[in-house]
Amino acid sequence: MKLVLASTSPRRAEVLRAAGFSFETISSAIDETPLSGEAAEPLVKRLALAKGRHAAERTPGPAMVLAADTVIELDGMILGKPRSMEDARAMLQRLSGRTHTVHTGVALIRLPGGESRVASESTRVTFAPLEPGAISEYLATGEPLDKAGAYAIQGRAGRFITRIEGCYFNVVGLPLARVCALMRELDWK
């Protein structure tokens, strides 16, 4: 059975490759706008399942479709991908010297049949206080622009992280142990 990653994220692909998985990728662009009053954890689960279903409609079986969505939560506010450099700067300023939670929703859909599993993983991450110059230097790398919360723990922003409580791979964007557990539930072969 082939594995299909419903994501064009190079970080998610890198996590899967490093874990020894062979897979195909398919783009799964959907509207990621939170529903009114929607909390972070239900949001990422809903979006992961929507991405997975969108990809499953275009995937011939037998296959296992894997989709994920990641957001940052700080003080009840959801931080997705920044819309601009100034948006990224504002996010990093808010994260500076604070602890936030990274939520990733994961959906697996087995084809044919469409049996699915959806779960989420949450990890707490603490940032060191950031000087304005450090934020400007980081923004100049371009790294923050396509990442939830405007940072990549596996990249240059790793030097800003003083503590992590939970799954490291969740912060990268794909909680590997959770994915493997869901695969076992769906009899991945």
Please report which band the strand proportion falls in: under 5%, 5-15%, 15-25%, 25-35%, 35-45% or over 45%. Answer: 25-35%
Mean of residue pLDDT?
Answer: 95
CATH topology: Maf protein
Secondary structure class reads alpha/beta
Low-confidence stretches: none
**Fraction of residues in H or I helices:** 25-40%
Radius of gyration based on Cα positions: 17 Å
> Could you tell me the number of beta strands?
7
Keywords:
189 residues, alpha/beta, Maf protein, 6 helices, elongated
Describe this structure in words.
The longest helix has 17 residues, at 40-56. This protein starts with a strand and ends with a helix. β5 (99-111) and β6 form a beta hairpin. Helices cover 32% and strands 28% of the residues. The protein has helices at residues 10-18, 40-56, 85-95, 132-140, 168-172, 176-185; strands at residues 2-5, 24-25, 63-74, 77-79, 99-111, 115-127, 161-165. Strands 1, 2, 3, 4, 5, 6 and 7 form a seven-stranded mixed β-sheet that branches. α3 packs across α4.
